[in-house]
Design a protein that fits this description.
The complex is a heterodimer of chains A (about 280) and B (about 80). Chain A has about 280 residues and is α+β, with helices and mostly antiparallel strands. Chain A is about 30% helix and about 20% strand. In chain A, strand 5, helix 3 and strand 6 form a beta-alpha-beta unit. In chain A, helix 2 packs across helix 3 and helix 4 crosses helix 5. About 20% of the residues of chain A have low confidence. The longest helix of chain B is centred in the C-terminal third of the chain and has 14 residues. Classes of the chains: A alpha+beta (about 280), B alpha+beta (about 80). Chains A and B meet through helix 2 and helix 3 of A and helix 1 and helix 3 of B.
Chain lengths: ~280, ~80
């Protein structure tokens, strides 16, 4: 062990788990040693699928720059851990299990170590702690809504993400979770809003993460991204300004981002409140 | 009753003074009213700007309740 940053991460596949870890630790692939804790399996038709778990360890001991100046630490209530010293070994963090909502029925997904995405001493310490707190809170919410689901931490999809600012996603995974999305993802927005609020209230820090259900946002972002490109083409061809459907701020952002570097058009949001929509305008 | 639990859980996570959170359940014929009360100073935290927090709670409550009508009031 180098005494560098390390942590365990989970994902649908080994690759996804590694990605999540690299994002969380802000390290590149060649700066870490990867140990596959559990390869995971796809299962049959999603039944019996098992998440992959990997342990990432930074090859170099924490660089000076990666050691955060001990920020005035407003004790994160949900994470009573000392924060600003590198932990050589993962500690049995005092977490309230289960972060993945307890699923009483005997699905063939043994979760021996249900949630051990250990926050380690990284520059993102607070971010990870916030994420964990969010996950715990979200799990509590789902439980009280009588929904059976698990929550995984994954990196934001390409379409959604701004290059330099990729956020982490609390993705709720389970069957029949359409109710969690709601009409025009109203329910999902409420879920995310409440979860973020709660984390901010507890940690006094501004945390930014996304709540998703079965990758819904990711898929939606992907299709919005494509829509944006298609519409831009059309605007270029016709030379006419075009307005898209009204969208939420997050969705409009995806459109703006998708067309940010487009040479021939610009985008602008017009309208108020629920009616606000993106217009695509040809450059003169 | 689990709707009550849900509201209490959210409220307690959002306020400063968790001890002052209480949720009273008033059952009518077809409607159940949940009366959430919190410390005076925490009112803003459970209502939010333009009632955003309260409305988000109502949205989640709808998922939990299914057919029955449950109304959330902050008193």
């Amino acid at each position: 062990m180098t005494g560098g940053k390390s942590g365990e991460f989970r994902g649908k596949t080994v690759e996804a788990a590694i990605d999540a870890g690299l994002t969380a630790l802000r390290l590149s692939r060649d700066a870490v040693e990867v140990e596959i804790v559990r390869p995971g399996s796809r299962g049959v038709l999603g039944i019996g699928a098992e998440e992959a778990i990997v342990r990432l360890t930074a090859l170099r001991p924490a660089k000076p720059e990666s050691k955060p100046t001990p920020r005035p630490e407003p004790a994160a209530v949900a994470k009573p851990e000392p924060k600003s010293e590198p932990k050589p070994e993962p500690q049995p963090a005092p977490r309230s299990e289960p972060a993945a909502v307890a699923r009483p029925e005997p699905k063939p997904t043994p979760k021996p170590e249900a949630t051990k995405t250990q926050p380690t001493a990284t520059p993102d310490d607070e971010e990870l702690a916030a994420l964990e707190a969010g996950r715990d809170f979200l799990a509590g919410l789902l439980e009280r809504m009588s929904l059976k689901a698990e929550i995984e931490i994954v990196p934001q999809s390409d379409a959604e993400a701004d290059d330099d600012d990729r956020m982490l996603v609390l993705n709720i995974v389970g069957d029949d979770l359409g109710v969690l999305i709601g009409r025009q993802n109203e329910t999902l927005s409420a879920l995310e809003f409440i979860t973020r609020l709660m984390v901010n209230q507890q940690s006094r820090a501004r945390s930014n993460f996304i709540v998703d259900v079965n990758g819904y946002r990711a898929r939606r972002a992907e299709s919005l991204h494509k829509l944006a490109l298609r519409m831009a083409d059309q605007v270029v061809q016709t030379g006419r300004t075009m307005a898209l459907e009204p969208m939420t701020p997050a969705e409009r952002r995806i459109i703006h981002l998708a067309l940010r570097d487009h040479a021939k058009i610009t985008t602008q949001s017009v309208g108020e409140g629920d009616r606000r929509k993106v217009t695509i305008i040809p450059k003169k | 009753m689990r709707e009550r639990d849900l509201v209490e859980y959210i409220a307690k996570a959002l306020v400063e003074n968790a001890d002052a959170v209480s949720v009273k359940e008033v059952r009518g014929g077809s409607v159940t009213v949940l009366e959430l009360s919190v410390d005076e100073s925490d009112m803003g935290r459970v209502i939010g700007k333009d009632g955003r927090v309260a409305n988000a709670m109502r949205t989640l409550l709808r998922v939990a309740t299914g057919d029955r009508r449950v109304v959330l009031e902050i008193v």
